[in-house]
Design goal:
Elements lengths: L1 H4 L8 H23 L3 H9 L4 H30 L9 H35 L8 H19 L28 H29 L12 H33 L12 H35 L6 H14 L15 H13 L1 H15 L8 H24 L1 H7 L3 H31 L5 H27 L16 H31 L38 H7 L13 E3 L5 H17 L3 H20 L5 E3 L1 H12 L3
Antiparallel strand pairs: 1-2
Helix pairs in contact: 4-5, 4-6, 4-17, 5-6, 5-7, 5-9, 5-15, 6-7, 6-19, 7-8, 7-19, 8-9, 8-10, 9-12, 9-13, 9-15, 10-12, 12-13, 13-15, 13-16, 15-16, 16-17, 19-20
Pathway: Energy metabolism; oxidative phosphorylation
Pfam families: COX1
Membrane topology: Multi-pass membrane protein
């Protein structure tokens, strides 16, 4: 009986029991649906074993949307708890678990896969490639991320969730203060997902540098691809320190080492340094691809070249460099001393300069443009002022002396969300709407989309602007309640109303997906937005080989030049056989074994750990020694596919 106690939730409540029931019913419904409609074979052939970058991108997208609502429920529960003084909706422990999982889910399991979705789908098309450099590694990257996400999300109902914040500071996470398995989930699940992300970084750097179409020099790469390149370079340098930190943290918790303890030679601040050496560049891993999306959208719907292409590229490179020199601004208040505080204060302010360059470039692109107010463009136009507010408050936080007042208050929470929601979430929703017709062959409803933009923007302002005021008045973050005497109640109620409006906006997104699937026209052509870059030169739906003939590029907006200046993208219509990689089930199987390994590590089940570790190495050996030369699509088959996609009989 003692063995089974470790799997029980330490602090059960009605919402947790409801979550258990919901998870159980969802699993049963999925299994029943696949069985009833006889889709098991289709699921295995077309999705679980795919190495097609487009399908992997769509799976990342579905995961990100699922996690958006998972993290959104946490957010609404937090705002409901703080809506009135002395509220008892959640107790302290449950609130700690919710704000911890909210942060982890939104940053690592929502924003990251959303970015990976657009990278996977768009980048190979934008550079004229037929796939990524390492297709099987790409599939493994997704399944490691997905299994890490699923492992983390069962924590609420099996063993208990992590409860020390998304930063997981020691000694709060140490076994002395957190004896339950909740924080084991943090160390192990994020480790598994992070390995997948690191593989993605290596894969896309190689793809962008080595697989561009003829004529596409570095100075002709579209802006989203440039942003993906810089973000993936940051991934390759930032994720290894976090990987090491998570391994050390897991050893502290599982094996009694003392890397981060406050006794026996350990140092809790070592965790804070390793975490933020990853954590602050992580913010730019998220925001740089968002900048790339907004650059594509603003240029397309202003009907103008992007203003200052070279300065935009230079500013992204500078941001990626400076991002590694600002991490210590997260502990201005922890006694580093005035010299260190001054250095990190200066670098934190300096990173605002290249970001400001981008804002001005977007404004100059809009200036005298023939602006078309589509849904993606509305997201971009809302982004500029809202993100600028977030940037200005970031400079306020960069002043180390003032940060003593701001640091542990709701002011910081408001700033962070002021950057991430308009910067990353709006960009991803703009990119989702913009690339939806290329992904699925029909457009999302514009009227519902515009309503969504307005609801999210108004809800955002109501939800987070009051936090600046309550933060300056002294409301601390991470506290699950406050007294009526503080006077924070009315503004917190406004924040709750704003969160509710945002929830309605996200519900509208779901309705839009359903409505458009049912009623949208499937006759949208290959370029419904009259866009500018290479991904809009191929068919809807995009064939497995992307381009029947590799395009010839002579500018960063090749499609626009082809439409307006007569540039010939495809020199001659002479089809040749095309080499493609075979599907494989090994990445999915390895992902499942990693899930078992992670679950066993969390609960110290050492025999399953050993067996699953052997299974992982067996899969790696099998994949290494198996001869798989892919397959060829014949020239005749390519010709027939092209005729069919063009509607030629």
């Amino acid at each position: 009986m003692e063995f089974f106690k470790q799997f029980a939730v330490p602090h059960p409540s009605l919402p947790i029991y409801a979550s258990m029931v919901a998870i159980g019913l969802t699993v049963v419904a999925i299994i029943a649906g696949l069985t009833y409609f006889k889709k098991w074979g289709y699921l295995w052939r077309e999705w679980l074993t795919t190495v097609d970058h487009k399908k992997i991108g769509i799976m990342y997208l579905l995961s990100a949307i699922l996690m958006l609502f998972r993290g959104g429920v946490d957010a609404v529960m937090m705002r409901a708890q703080l809506a009135v003084p002395d509220n008892t909706l959640l107790d302290a422990q449950h609130y700690n678990e919710i704000f911890t999982t909210h942060g982890v889910v939104m940053i690592i399991f929502m924003a990251m896969p959303f970015i990976m979705a657009l990278m996977n789908f768009v980048v190979p098309l934008q550079i004229g490639a037929r796939d990524v450099a390492f297709p099987r590694l790409n599939a493994l990257s997704f399944w490691l991320f997905f299994m890490g996400a699923m492992l983390f999300n069962i924590s609420f109902v099996v063993g208990g969730s992590p409860d020390a914040g998304w930063t997981a500071y020691f000694p709060l996470v140490g076994p002395e203060l957190a004896p339950n398995v909740g924080n084991n989930y943090y160390m192990v699940a994020i480790q598994i997902a992070g390995l997948g992300t690191l593989m993605t970084g290596i894969n896309f750097i190689t793809t962008i540098l080595k697989m561009r179409a003829p004529g596409m020099t570095l100075s002709k790469i579209p802006m989203f691809t440039w942003s993906a390149l810089t973000a993936n370079i940051i991934i390759v340098f930032a994720f290894p320190p976090f990987t090491v930190a998570l391994a050390m943290g897991a050893m502290d918790r599982l094996f009694g080492t003392h890397f981060f303890s406050t006794t026996n030679g350990g140092m809790d601040m070592l965790w804070a340094n390793l975490f933020w050496v990853w954590g602050h560049p992580e913010v730019y891993i998220l925001i740089l691809p968002a900048f790339g999306i907004f650059s594509e959208v603003i240029s397309t719907f202003s009907r103008k070249n992007l203003y200052g292409y070279k300065s935009m590229v230079a500013s992204m490179v500078i941001i990626s460099l400076i991002s590694f020199f600002v991490w210590a601004h997260h502990f201005f208040t922890m006694g580093m001393g005035p010299l260190a505080n001054s250095i990190f204060s200066i670098t934190t302010m300096a990173i605002a300069v290249p970001t400001g360059v981008k804002i001005f470039n977007w404004l100059f692109t809009l200036y005298k443009g023939k602006i078309e107010f589509t849904t993606p463009m509305l997201y971009a136009l809302m982004f500029i002022p809202l993100f600028t507010i977030g940037g200005v408050t970031g400079v306020m936080l960069a002043m180390s002396a003032a940060d003593y007042q701001y640091h542990n208050t709701m002011f910081l929470v408001a700033h962070f969300h002021n950057v991430i929601i308009p910067g990353v979430v709006f960009a991803m929703l703009a990119g989702l709407t913009y690339y939806w017709p290329k992904m699925f062959g029909y457009m999302l409803n514009e009227k519902i989309g515009k309503w969504t933009v307005w609801l999210l923007s108004i809800g955002f302002l109501l939800a987070f602007m009051p936090m600046y005021i309550t933060g300056l008045d002294g409301q601390v973050r991470r506290a699950y309640t406050y007294s009526e005497a503080t006077g924070f109640g009315p503004l917190n109620m406004v924040s709750f109303v704003g969160a509710g409006i945002m929830a309605i906006g996200f519900a509208l997104i779901c309705y839009n997906l359903y409505y458009s699937y049912r009623y949208a026209s499937r006759d949208v052509g290959i370029d419904p937005w009259d866009a500018r870059t290479l991904e809009w030169a191929t068919h809807n739906p995009v064939p497995a080989y992307n381009f029947a003939i590799i395009p010839q590029v002579n500018s960063y907006q090749a499609v626009w030049d082809a439409k307006k200046n007569g540039h010939v993208l495809f020199k001659e219509e002479k089809y040749e056989k095309i080499h493609m990689p075979n599907n494989t089930g090994i990445p999915f199987i390895m992902g499942c074994i990693f899930f078992v390994w992670g679950f066993s590590m969390i609960f110290s089940l050492w025999i399953p750990v050993i067996v699953s570790t052997i299974g992982i190495f067996v899969c790696m050996a099998y994949n290494s020694f198996k001869e798989d030369h892919g397959y060829y699509i014949s020239a005749e088959e390519v010709k027939e596919t092209e005729k069919e996609l063009r509607g030629v009989s």
